[in-house]
């Protein structure tokens, strides 16, 4: 089975995020980069499917040169190979541009199964998984917490607001991962050594069947005008009182009069 | 022909979702600014009867497509129907609430139509020709203003942000008969939890627990019950296995903006704050007076949550009796 995992490198979520001097991008120097947490779950699930059904796991990532580190992390976990899509021409594109570029790359790699995180926790567009499936005209199942493949079919439990549904489709399919599907493995030392030596293929604009009018900042249909740090100044008022009952009574008063609760 | 705006609404457990009514009201506001006709699109199984109730929120027209194949999931069949409706009505703007269902649906729709999509939008400014949207990036660490190029524009609005206002009109829903194409995905089973359970993203009050609970959520659950709110959790609580993944609030979990957020025994990591900092009121309860959560709160109680939360429940019950 040919399994392709879509992976994104993102700034560490435990770090502060700063705005660059241009006012429309994020400062990227001196920050720690990590694999998007939902993509770690995607890599893990791909490895488990390979262990059960055989096949090859390819990591596909679009980003800066630095994103090859994240591809190597996935290879250290056990993936077979990695492809980095990188070209300055792609800079500043929106989610729709990314969908088109990834789709073009997937047409070259081929696939029986594509797995992606349900969203990346930096830009939170939630668009890549369903978008790529739509453009490839293959079935899409989002927010998967359990899957089972038998006889060229996949059955998935997916999370919905207020419950779960079980869906079934024929391969090839794209599904996205939600927490609870698995616990991603740690990389082993031998895995890291192996990943270091692995050649990562780099694809640029000229390697892909994409049109110049589909990519880059000037073709983004959603353009960032400005970025700001949200005004989040709160004036903390500590609730005092002789006893915890007194404090609770004061807080209940405030909840009633200021916040309109009950 | 006049301009039009589509609002796609979602039903759950027999009712239109609060988040759908919110986006409908925002649609009314935008339709007035743009002098456009507001068309509510109601798709589903057994929806025709209740569709009329949406007239009270300012719909100019209500289009209904009712079919047993429209079972919410899979979403691609909805895309097909909406595409047909778009061809017929050529709206300039399509609005939906960014619930899990709404996000999947418009992510597919935007690619199919090759048009701009703003996901999880928290504010919309329009002129006659342009829309400028606000949305948060990195959970809630950064606020972006974005503009949209292309038509129709699709905007998915964040639940619990836009205000509900009644604006009654006389509308008779128009029932359309369309052929529903078969989906590539088949629904095997639907498992809804109790209809009473409030979704975190739509909850008005959230009581959330962190490491300070030591895994004991009883008091937090009781407080949420008494207040008619929902229970949330920090990442460490979920990692410890104390709460299910769907309760996790933060940059890597759910991003919420309730009226009142009560953080109990949550230290306040950067990624947690990112997921709840847009709450209207934040109350922190923590033993540690130096917990970073306090800096991000409006009100703080320095004390053990295992004493403070039960005391809060008793005082709320007392206050209710005196009302």
Write the layout of secondary structure elements.
The complex is a heterodimer of chains A (262) and B (323).
Chain A: E1 2-7, E2 9-11, E3 33-35, H1 37-53, E4 56-62, H2 67-77, E5 81-85, H3 95-109, E6 113-117, H4 128-136, E7 140-150, E8 153-160, E9 163-170, E10 173-177, H5 189-197, E11 201-203, E12 222-228, E13 237-238, H6 244-257
Parallel strand pairs in A: 1-4, 1-6, 4-5, 5-11, 6-10, 7-10
Antiparallel strand pairs in A: 2-3, 7-8, 8-9
Helix pairs in contact in A: 2-5, 3-4
Chain B: E1 4-9, E2 11-12, E3 15-16, H1 18-34, E4 37-44, H2 48-51, E5 61-66, H3 76-89, E6 93-97, H4 100-113, E7 117-126, E8 131-137, E9 142-148, E10 153-157, E11 174-176, E12 185-192, E13 205-209, H5 218-227, E14 230-233, H6 235-239, E15 260-264, H7 270-276, E16 281-286, E17 299-302, H8 305-322
Parallel strand pairs in B: 1-4, 1-6, 4-5, 5-11, 6-10, 7-10, 13-14, 13-15, 15-16, 16-17
Antiparallel strand pairs in B: 2-3, 7-8, 8-9
What does this structure look like?
The complex is a heterodimer of chains A (262) and B (323). Chain A has 262 residues and is α/β, with parallel strands linked by helices. Chain A contains 6 helices and 13 strands. Chain A has helices spanning 37-53, 67-77, 95-109, 128-136, 189-197, 244-257, and strands at residues 2-7, 9-11, 33-35, 56-62, 81-85, 113-117, 140-150, 153-160, 163-170, 173-177, 201-203, 222-228, 237-238. In chain A, 48% of the residues are buried. Helix content of chain B is 28%, strand content 29%. Chain B is built from 8 helices and 17 strands. In chain B, strands 9-8-7-10-6-1-4-5-11 form a 9-stranded mixed β-sheet, with helices on both faces. In chain B, helix 3 (76-89) crosses helix 4. The model of chain B has no long low-confidence stretch (mean pLDDT 94). The interface between A and B is large, with 84 and 98 residues. Strand 9 of chain A pairs antiparallel with strand 12 (185-192) of chain B.
